[in-house]
């Protein structure tokens, strides 16, 4: 009888331990955001960082930017996603813009996607009648961009039973808005292979 | 007198030369990267931006190596945040040239960082 009670106690203890372990949830830890990410062959954070960095550095060294007396005004246009994957190309261009801004060599005018907020704010200040005249941001003073940045990302994907090979090519162009001339262009290639 | 002046000049020149760090001193290694040899390292300012060129060679079969540059400005301060690690694929016995361009014209020096990734 005594033995039986002991077995029941041990069983309850074991069950409680299992339940506690199950309820404790996943272990969370912070990682290095700049580390090489190789979870799978799909487009990932390392690709985004490599592309943005390569394009920014190349653009900074271009004559259009480095040869300019004042920091030229640039705007962001579309980067087309020609791959079969979902890639938020806006994140790539935003990253490029942030890095270029940090360099102090380029100024950015609001892009097409940010234009609505800009006009809304100007309307609010000028048409609501709520603001002191001397502090109102006047209409008709926005600066046009000298250049625009646009490009594309394309991929070639090949699959076998055991291998997946992905090749990305990212193209970026700097176009003179007035003349329509391409002032700078560069590309970044990335190849990734996943094997079972 | 002339002799002493010459000796002094030579000494100053030697001190000036010794302050230039060697390739080994300019390389920071993390993890197991012993199989990667740095065979050449040079830099120049192109269009106002510091550009570095590093040649690396792989002596082993394993090649899971990533690199990044650390750009340094006045007083040894880093000019921007750390760069992302960039994986580089080089076969056994193969050598490759890595180019790095500084993120701002403020960079006057650089360090080359090598790391192993999984």
Characterization of this structure:
The complex is a heterodimer of chains A (196) and B (118). In chain A, strands 2-1-3-4-5 form a five-stranded mixed beta sheet, covered by helices on one side. By secondary structure, chain A is an alpha/beta fold. Chain A is flat. Chain A is 36% helix and 27% strand. With 118 residues, chain B is mostly beta strands. Chain B has one domain: Sandwich (Immunoglobulin-like), CATH 2.60.40.3230. In chain B, 14% of the residues lie in helices and 43% in strands. Chain B has one helix at 2-18; strands at 27-30, 36-46, 49-58, 65-72, 86-88, 95-101, 109-116. In chain B, the strands form two sheets. Chain B has a four-stranded mixed beta sheet with strand order 1-7-4-5, with no helix packed on it. In chain B, strand 2 and strand 3 (49-58) form a beta hairpin. In chain B, 21% of the residues are buried. The model of chain B has no long low-confidence stretch (mean pLDDT 86). The A-B interface holds A 34-36, 38, 46, 49-50, 53, 56-58, 60-63, 66-67, 99, 102-105, 191 and B 46-49, 51, 66, 68, 80, 82-87, 89, 100-105, 117-118.
Helix and strand arrangement:
The complex is a heterodimer of chains A (196) and B (118).
Chain A lengths: L1 H22 L21 H17 L1 H4 L6 E9 L7 H15 L3 E2 L6 H13 L19 E13 L3 E14 L5 E14 L1
Parallel strand pairs in A: 1-2, 1-3
Antiparallel strand pairs in A: 3-4, 4-5
Chain B lengths: L1 H17 L8 E4 L5 E11 L2 E10 L6 E8 L13 E3 L6 E7 L7 E8 L2
Parallel strand pairs in B: 1-7
Antiparallel strand pairs in B: 2-3, 3-6, 4-5, 4-7
């Amino acid at each position: 009888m005594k033995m039986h009670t002991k077995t029941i106690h041990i069983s309850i203890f074991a069950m409680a331990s299992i339940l506690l372990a199950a309820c404790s949830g996943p272990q969370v830890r912070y990682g290095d955001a700049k580390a090489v990410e190789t979870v799978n062959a799909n487009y990932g954070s390392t690709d985004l960082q490599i592309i943005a960095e390569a394009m920014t550095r190349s653009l900074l060294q271009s004559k259009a930017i480095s040869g300019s007396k004042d920091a030229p005004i640039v705007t962001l246009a579309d980067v087309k996603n020609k791959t079969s994957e979902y890639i938020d190309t806006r994140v790539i261009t935003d990253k490029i813009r942030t890095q270029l801004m940090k360099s102090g060599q380029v100024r950015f005018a609001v892009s097409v996607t940010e234009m609505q907020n800009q006009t809304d704010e100007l309307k609010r200040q000028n048409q609501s009648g709520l603001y002191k005249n001397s502090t109102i941001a006047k209409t008709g003073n926005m600066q046009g961009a000298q250049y625009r940045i646009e490009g594309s990302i394309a991929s070639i994907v090949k699959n076998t039973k055991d291998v997946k090979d992905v090749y990305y090519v990212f193209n970026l162009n700097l176009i003179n808005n007035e003349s329509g001339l391409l002032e700078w262009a560069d590309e970044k290639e990335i190849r990734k292979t996943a094997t079972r | 007198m002339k002799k002493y002046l010459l000796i002094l000049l030579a000494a100053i020149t030697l001190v000036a030369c010794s302050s230039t760090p060697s390739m080994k001193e300019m390389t920071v290694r993390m993890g197991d990267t012993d199989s990667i040899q740095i065979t050449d390292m040079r830099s120049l300012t192109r269009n106002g931006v510091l550009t570095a060129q590093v040649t690396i060679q792989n002596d082993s079969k394993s090649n899971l190596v990533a690199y990044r540059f650390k750009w340094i400005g006045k007083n040894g301060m880093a000019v921007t945040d750390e760069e992302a690690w960039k994986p580089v694929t080089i076969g056994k016995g193969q050598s490759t040239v890595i180019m790095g361009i500084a993120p701002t014209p403020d960079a006057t020096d650089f360090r080359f960082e090598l790391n192993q990734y999984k």
